[in-house]
Amino acid sequence: MCSGGFAKCLGITLMPLAIVCVLCNILLFFPGGTSVDSKYITDEVWYFGGILGSGVLMIFPALVFLGLKNNDCCGCCGNESCGRRFAMLSSILFAGVGVLGAGYSVIVSSVAINHGPICLFQKNETEKGWSYPFSNGDYLSNKTFWTLCEEPQGVVSWHLSLFAVLLVMGLIQMALCAVQVVNGLLGALCGDCCGGGDGN
């Protein structure tokens, strides 16, 4: 497959991943599937890892990758393939943006999973309050700790599931953008098709 066609496949794959990440981040604003006061939403949700990192910043490289297949720039210096080579080279920059965006989402998701959600729990014998009952991921290996959170119902599994999806999607996005870096280098060095032809 020619480098432009391969880049288009990567772009087609990145678009739905970006949409899923945006939706996951939006759902995290409704812990346990319920509406709560903004001060009771986990801090890491406000970092917008899924909306900005794996969402908006991933849309740009995806659109660029989608357009590489049809890039028929007229060339330069008498070389008809020069325009396509330059387009493939510039795609590396956008792939780097994608890696940074997805990397940001992965970091935020990792911290959020380790930190755990904010919830209402029994702080001591006489006091209940909203805070973070877990620390250093100690709840991950012991589901009995999840019962510490009284409200919102199911907030721990909600928090863990959505941030885990963001983590996995971010890693996939980083891998796809890294592949495009290699593909872009090959396209810039060899032209759209290393074996010759016009790339169609």
UniProtKB/TrEMBL annotation:
The keyword Transmembrane applies. It is found in: Membrane. The chain crosses the membrane at residues 12-33, 45-66, 86-107, 156-179. It comes from the Eukaryota. One of its GO terms (biological process) is negative regulation of type B pancreatic cell development. Keywords: Membrane, Transmembrane, Transmembrane helix. It is a multi-pass membrane protein. GO terms for cellular component: membrane. Belongs to the L6 tetraspanin family. This is Transmembrane 4 L six family member 4. It comes from Sparus aurata (Gilthead sea bream). The gene is TM4SF4.
